[in-house]
Write a structure and sequence with these properties.
- This protein has a domain of 236 residues: NAD(P)-binding Rossmann-like Domain (Rossmann fold), CATH 3.40.50.
- Helices cover 41% and strands 15% of the residues.
- The chain contains twelve helices and 13 strands.
- The protein has a seven-stranded parallel sheet with strand order 3-2-1-4-5-6-11, with helices on both faces.
- Strand 5, helix 7 and strand 6 form a beta-alpha-beta unit.
- Helix 6 packs parallel to helix 7 and helix 10 packs across helix 12.
- The N and C termini lie far apart (52 Å).
Length: 345
């Protein structure tokens, strides 16, 4: 033993910094890490983009565990991330905080510039000064944009974003690659595919549909329902992320499907169910879970949207052994159970 006893004891419990810890995915990820024995530092600005009370409740539940340290603040505030990295020296950093939402990015693009580009820059600078063992950064399936070859493969070009949200997330991937190359920072970008489940986001379709149907109101179904999504249950997504923490990019690819950069410890990984579901089937699962039919208003495709997504998850499986376990009918029923419980309390 080279250091003092207290230093050795302190390092037994690894520390993770999770940005966006009061968000839907961040909350579930932080809870899983705490259950696995990690110290978790959670940063969130509690943005009013959707119900702040929901975010505060998520953080409050995490704070019931003494291994959780909540920090309220914005990514883009100069020096905030630098100070957090210097104080906590995280072993793993999982960067989930972002301004989300394809449709909102059409009306408020500056929100995405500040959170997704400037915020990510601040994070990369802090990681450069205080390198973690692994930096994992959230991207999105939206970066595939106008691609039509299915399933989406990480080695495909992603140069045709259909929204400014997608453009900022693709820019974040490029920024990450440059830092991985220049400063030998091990970075994994993961692309999410339509995540749903308990404690979800009120701006997402499942939440909005459930709220409307329980109120006896119609739901708006875009592109006349001719859409499909690789709906990914939150528990499966978190399993994918936690598995990737240990899959630090190195020098050798895991096989021909690897997206590992030839010039940096950097790779991009899809996390999805690898099972596209027609939107109308998703709605049917919700109707069954609620025990009532939906009144549907069929509308044209919205600007910035895409007709289909489908993840090739073979790289994630090769790296972690991942297999999605929760089917759509089961996942939707679990969401409905949570929704009824939360809003009747």
């Amino acid at each position: 033993m080279t250091g003092p006893p207290e230093a050795a004891t302190k390092h037994v419990m690894r520390t993770a910094l999770v940005t966006g810890s009061a968000g839907f995915i961040g909350y579930h990820l932080a809870a899983r890490l705490l259950a696995a024995g990690w110290q978790v530092v959670g940063l969130d600005c509690l943005s009013p983009y959707y119900d702040v009370a929901l975010k505060e409740r998520r953080h409050a539940m995490l704070a019931e565990n003494p291994a959780f340290t909540p920090v309220i603040g914005k990514l883009e505030d100069p020096g905030r991330l630098m100070e957090l990295f210097a104080r906590h020296r995280p072993d793993a950093v999982i960067h989930l905080a972002a301004q989300a939402g394809v449709r909102h990015s059409i009306d408020a693009p500056r929100d995405y510039l500040e959170a997704n580009l400037i915020g990510t820059f601040e994070l990369l600078e802090a990681a450069r000064a205080h390198p973690p063992a692994h930096l994992l950064m959230a991207s999105t399936s939206s970066v595939y944009g106008a691609n039509t070859e299915m399933p989406f493969d990480e080695r495909q070009k992603a140069d045709t974003p259909m929204s400014f949200y997608a453009a900022t997330k693709k820019a974040g991937e490029a920024m990450g690659h440059s830092y991985a190359h220049l400063y030998a920072l091990p970075i994994t970008m993961f692309r999410f595919f339509t995540v749903y489940g308990p404690w979800g986001r009120p701006d997402m379709a499942l939440f909005k549909f459930t709220k409307a149907m329980l109120a006896g109101e119609p739901i708006e179904v875009y592109n006349h329902g001719r859409m499909s999504r690789d709906f990914t249950y939150i528990d499966d997504l978190v399993t994918g992320i936690t598995g990737l923490i240990e899959a630090v990019p190195g020098d050798m690819p895991v096989g021909p499907q690897d997206s590992l950069s030839p010039v940096a410890p950097f790779r991009v990984v899809n996390i999805g169910a690898s099972q596209p579901t027609p939107l109308m089937d998703y709605i049917a699962a919700l109707e069954d879970a609620l025990g009532q039919p939906a009144q549907k208003i069929l509308k044209e495709m919205q600007a910035g949207d895409v007709p289909a997504t489908w993840a090739d998850t073979s790289l994630l499986t090769a790296l972690t052994g991942y297999r999605a376990e929760v089917d759509v009918r089961t996942g939707v029923a679990r969401f409905v159970d949570w929704y009824r419980g939360y809003y009747s309390a």
